[in-house]
Amino acid sequence: MKKMMKKFALTVACVMTVAMFAACGGKDEKADTITFGTNAEFPPFEFVAANGVIGEYDGIDMAIAKQIGDEIGKTAQIENMEFDSLLLALQNGQVDAVIAGMTIDPERAEEVNFSVPYYTAKQVMIVKEDSSIAKATDMADKKIVVIQGYTGESCVKEMGYPYEAFKKGSEAIMELVNGKCDVVVIDSATAQKYVGDNEGLKIVEDAEAFSSEEYGIAVNKKNTELLEQINEVLNKMIADGTINELSAKYSEQ
Ligand code: GLN
Questions:
Q1: 150 CA to middle of ligand 1, Å?
Q2: Residue of the nearest CA to atom 10 in ligand 1?
């Protein structure tokens, strides 16, 4: 009798183990995928599209993420979240890497590791075509809008001008289009996209006020192996011109 009970318990344990594996697809799903966190509100780097390169997500960064997945033998997945939450999600292990047109800066580099830089950008000002703003100091008495947590916000903060921060670039642009603000400070390639998509806007640059920035992929400080793999793919994509091609393709769209 005791023997039978033991056998029964063993069978139950086996069935449960099999069922557990079956529920997970019978394999360790995490080993087969690489999850990138992004904020799909930043064209031409990441945006939602009907037929994106990874599901509904498209853009320069999404194509890079897809290629990284392909080259390291994993399926690239995207977790779309607020820009401000990305580095926390990385530290919590919710995502494996962050690709979000993210500028490599010393403050962020204290929290996470950054890949080699893959894109050079700068902050610019978007204004109405008839605006008198010609340089950054002209913003002093104007209504400035930035996007929360972007490097553009830190730049304006450092200049000491009051501003309003919006959660999405598209919302900030609507404020400008509707005449509710005078200037939006945002990254150059994204600015070009917005100016192309909306009538009556122009870009004003000020190289003295805004230095150049470099985008990198962020990885958890503990995950040095993944960082090396990402760097290898990025270096290759930079050297063979793939990143330049992607930038040209998505900027023209
Ligand atoms: N490059 C800017 C930053 O890192 C904006 C990035 C973004 O909005 N995705 O803050």
A1: 5
A2: 150
Domain that holds residue 146: 121-212
Sign of the dihedral through C-alpha 37, 40, 41, 45: positive
CATH number where 228 lies: 3.40.190.10
If you measure from the C-alpha of residue 75 to the centroid of ligand 1, how many angstroms do you get, rounded to a whole number?
Answer: 25
Residues 104 and 125 grouped into a single domain: no
* Ligand 1 shell residues, CB under 6 Å: 39, 42, 83, 100-103, 150-151, 187
pTM, whole model, 2 decimals?
0.86
In terms of domains, do 155 and 109 share one?
Answer: no
Residue pLDDT, tens place only, 60-88: 999 999 999 999 999 999 999 999 999 99
Residues 6+ apart with CB under 8 A from 11: none
The pairing of beta strand 113-114 with beta strand 201-204: unpaired
